[in-house]
Design a protein that fits this description.
Blueprint lengths: L8 H7 L13 H5 L9 E6 L8 E7 L2 E7 L12 H4 L1 H6 L7 E3 L8 E3 L1 H18 L1 E5 L2 E13 L5 H13 L2 E6 L4
Parallel strand pairs: 7-8
Antiparallel strand pairs: 1-2, 2-3, 4-5, 6-7
Length: 186
C-alpha cells in the first residue's frame, strides 16, 4: 500500500533504487504529464531569423494559427539549429502583449504624435510614393529616352536577406527608380 511518503521525491530517492535522484525518483506526476509545445503543434514553418543579415534558420511551431514555439532549424546550413539570444527571443517579438501594433505619426508642422492603424499608414505611404514618382518622372534627358523617376530612392538595411533585396530591387525598378542601394554593399 502506497503512503503519502511514496509521492515525495526525496523519500523515493532515499529508499528506492535511484539514490542519485536522476531517474524515476525525481519524476512527479506533474512531470509525467508535461508535453512539449513542439509536440502539440499543428504545423512547422521553416523561416529565417529577422534580426541580422546572418540568416539563421528557424522553425516556427504553430497550433490553432498561433505561434507556440520558435527554435533553431537543425537543417539550416548556416546556423545548424543554433540561435543567438536575439534569435531565441523571436517568439516574444511576435507574441508579446506589449508589442506595438499601431504606427506613430506626426502631421506636418504638428507637435504631437498620434496613433494610426497600419492600413491607414500604408495607404498614406502608397499615396506619397505615387505622388513622388509622378512629380519626379522624366521621360527624356538630353534627347535620350530614360523613363525614370528621381523622386524615389531605396536604401536597404543589413537585416534584409538576399531574397528580400532582390524583391526590393525589382519593385523599385518597376516603379522607375534608379537610386537603389543596399547598406551591405556600402
Amino acid at each position: 500500500m502506497k503512503t503519502w511518503l511514496d509521492a515525495w521525491p526525496v523519500f523515493r530517492q532515499l529508499t528506492g533504487p535511484d539514490p542519485l535522484g536522476r531517474g524515476k525518483a525525481a519524476r512527479s506526476k506533474a512531470t509525467e504529464e508535461v508535453v512539449s509545445r513542439t509536440a502539440t503543434a499543428d504545423k512547422v514553418v521553416q523561416t529565417v531569423c529577422p534580426f541580422c543579415a546572418v540568416g539563421c534558420g528557424q522553425r516556427v511551431f504553430v497550433k490553432d494559427e498561433q505561434i507556440v514555439q520558435i527554435e533553431g532549424d537543425p537543417d539550416s546550413p548556416i546556423s545548424r539549429g543554433r540561435l543567438c539570444p536575439k534569435g531565441s527571443a523571436t517568439k516574444q517579438l511576435v507574441t508579446s502583449p506589449s508589442r506595438v501594433t499601431t504606427v506613430k505619426y506626426r502631421r506636418p508642422h504638428g507637435t504631437e504624435w498620434e496613433d494610426l492603424d497600419l492600413d491607414t499608414a500604408m495607404e498614406m505611404i502608397a499615396d506619397r510614393v505615387l505622388d513622388a514618382r509622378r512629380k519626379g518622372w522624366q521621360d527624356e534627358v538630353d534627347g535620350h529616352k530614360v523613363n525614370r523617376t528621381l523622386g524615389i530612392a531605396s536604401l536597404g538595411g543589413a537585416t534584409l536577406d538576399n531574397e528580400e533585396n532582390y524583391l526590393m530591387k525589382k519593385l523599385y525598378s518597376a516603379m522607375g527608380a534608379v537610386q537603389i542601394e543596399n547598406q551591405a554593399r556600402i
